[in-house]
Amino acid sequence: MNIFLKISFSSILMVPVLTTIAQFPKKIAINQVGFYTNAPKSALVLNAPDANKFYVLTATKKDTIFKGSLEDVVHSDFSTTITRKANFSEIKKPGNYLLYVPGVGLSAIFKINKNIYNDLGKASIKAYYFQRASMPLQKQFAGTWARNEGHPDSVVFIHTSATSSVRAANTFISSPGGWYDAGDYNKYIVNSGITMGTMLSGYEDFETYFKKINTNIPESGNGVPDVLNELLYNLRWMFTMQDTDGGVYHKCTNANFDAMIMPEAAIAKRFVVQKGTAASLDFAAVMAQASRIYKQFPKQLPGLADSCITAAKLAWDWAIKNPKIVYEQNEMNKHFLPAIVTGDYGDKIFEDEFFWAACELLATTKNLNYLPVIKNAPIATMSLPSWANVNLLGCYTLTRFKKQLPLAAANSVADAEKTINDRSDKLLLNGGNKAFGSIFGQSKNDFVWGSNSVAMNESILLINNYLITKNKKYLTAALTNMDYILGKNATGYCFVTGFGTKPAMHPHHRPSVADGITDPIPGLLVGGPNPGMQDKCIYVNKETETAYTDDDCAYACNEIAINWNAPFVYVSNALEALQLKLNK
Question: Is the pLDDT at 2 greater than 90, yes or no?
Fold first, then answer.
């Protein structure tokens, strides 16, 4: 029966409940990509307290396949938004659908099928190809977004802060390749560290699935999985950032940020700057992890695994000898010229980097010399990963290899599992964000610079706990944050370029701004709501969970970054791998 045809689209007169509701439009917030057949499915009706019924229609609007009542009004803790939930989890049939609420209107079209994140996961990986420096992006691989080579980085000068007995100031090294870090064209070891570690961990956790992914990059079909080919492009650049003494330069950078121009037009002088403890340890962790992964491909990549572990040990030894070398850019600029004003990534606490590097080196080498650092770490208090706090990456590694690690590490493994479980249960304790039904957003502190990466790192934590416990409640909780990212949020945006019916269209991303193409490069996760609004751009909505504007000016909420995309790569592909396995 076509109930939809009997319902008028005209708005129902409503008695205002809160004067503030009038400031925000009535609308339906929904995951604009869609839902798995056997997973929970729901949408939120925003700012319509008197709405009552909802209907799920086929995308053609010819048939109504489900009707239900909206749940009670919930007032958000972080804005004046109010929500009512429409639960349609009973629908299992694959197809394209719309949700209709009288007096509110239609939702975006959404899909239900068994591999809903397949294209999304591929795009999240392919996004890194579009971030490549030092090579042209050819049309057969880049399509609409083909471009010329930028930043060959064959001549990168030793900054006056980075001199050594072997490398004098204003001499140069070659440092080609790698990924542009974010919306800018510089390359940073610290941020590459967490990015590489997160994506390599995704491969280790879901190797069978990742091996099948073809992203159509120049290396496709060479006998190495595409995700590892992409990671290798950045790994080879990281090698160039290690000095002969084992220490690692903090970044390869201009003195100043480039204008909003294409990579080939950005020809400013490039430098490597001061070596630091954080950069060296992040490098050591990545190289140790890469060594055990690329060891699987001796024919295609002869000698690579050995080179990785050798570089890792050298960087570790340098950090042991130099345990407190802080990269303080403002202080550095007082003593060395030219002044460097690009991304800082300064970090003054290195216990987390020592722990992560020790875990990766132990897992790869089984050498007990790394165990004391692990045993002395405060595992119970470790928090969600960020570029400045990589502790939990080490915990994931300990649990991933618990059966292969030396018996002497058993207590540390148990502590790591307990921390993962405790932190997961803490996320689930109060049911998450009551108004939006996601685990993310239950604290004002979630809405920081790069808030969307917080959501994705929460989901990684929950997925890791699912891998440990096999309890599906953690997997279900992880899915709620994907709903949030893909449109079920207070802004109504899908925060991934190229996906959904209301995606971010104007990210702070130089190629997407300067290329003259309407659509931005796809598969990029923008930063997300940030009430700090540090960019001083115009934000129409300024409340905690609505402080987002789709404007390339707004780097505090709408920039992209490799370390934000990495957990998105992990989660979108992990969920796909797990759902395929569970639905067999």
Answer: no
In 3D space, the residue among 475, 448, 468, 320 whose CA is nearest the CA of residue 389 turns out to be 448
SS (H, E, C) 34-100: EEECCCCCEEEEECCCCCCEEEEEECCCCCEEEEEECCCCEECCCCCCEEEEEECCCCCCCEEEEEE
Nearest by Cα to 310 from 216, 358, 390, 246: 246
pLDDT, tens only, 111-167: 999 999 999 999 999 999 999 999 999 999 999 999 999 999 999 999 999 999 999
Cβ atoms of 504 and 552 within 8 Å: the answer is: no
Residue 19: pLDDT band with limits 50, 70, 90: very low
Positive or negative, the Cα torsion across 157, 163, 169, 172? negative
Residue 408 has pLDDT above 90, yes or no: yes
Q: Where are the beta strands (DSSP E) in 259-339?
A: 271-272
Distance CA 565, CA 103 (A): 37
Over residues 40-80, the pLDDT tens digits come to 999 999 999 999 999 999 999 999 999 999 999 999 999 99
The side-by-side arrangement of strands in the sheet containing 74-75 is: 27-29, 42-46, 82-87, 74-75
- Quick one: how far is CA 449 from the chain centroid? 13
Active site residues: 184, 508, 550, 559
Distance between CA atoms of residues 454 and 191, nearest Å: 15
What span, in angstroms and rounded, lies between the C-alpha atoms of 178 and 186?
Answer: 10
pTM: 0.95
Q: What is the CA radius of gyration of the chain?
A: 24
Instruction: Find where tokens 């029966």 sit.
Output: 1
Separation CA 348–CA 345 (nearest Å): 10
Q: Is the pLDDT of residue 18 over 80?
A: no
Distance, in Å, from the CA atom of 514 to the CA atom of 506, rounded to the nearest integer, reads 11
Q: Measuring CA to CA, which residue among 107, 184, 192, 121 is closest to residue 151?
A: 184
Reply yes or no on whether the pLDDT at 24 is more than 90.
Answer: no
- Read off the amino acid at residue 102: P
The pLDDT score that the predictor gives to residue 23 is 53
Residue in the block written with tokens 């990742």:
210
> How far apart are the C-alpha atoms of 45 and 42, rounded to whole Å?
10
Mean pLDDT score, 252-266: 98
- Over residues 8-31, mean pLDDT: 53
The answer, yes or no, to whether the previous bond of 218 is cis (omega within 30 of 0) is no
User: Which among 385, 477, 386, 379 has a CA at the least distance from the CA of 424?
Assistant: 477
What sign for the dihedral angle of Cα 164, 169, 170, 171?
negative
pLDDT range class, residue 15, cuts 50, 70, 90: very low
Mean pLDDT (the chain) is: 95
Q: How far apart are CA 346 and CA 574, in angstroms?
A: 31
Euclidean distance between CA atoms 372 and 412, whole angstroms: 10
CA neighbor of 150 nearest in space, from 183, 176, 127, 124: 176
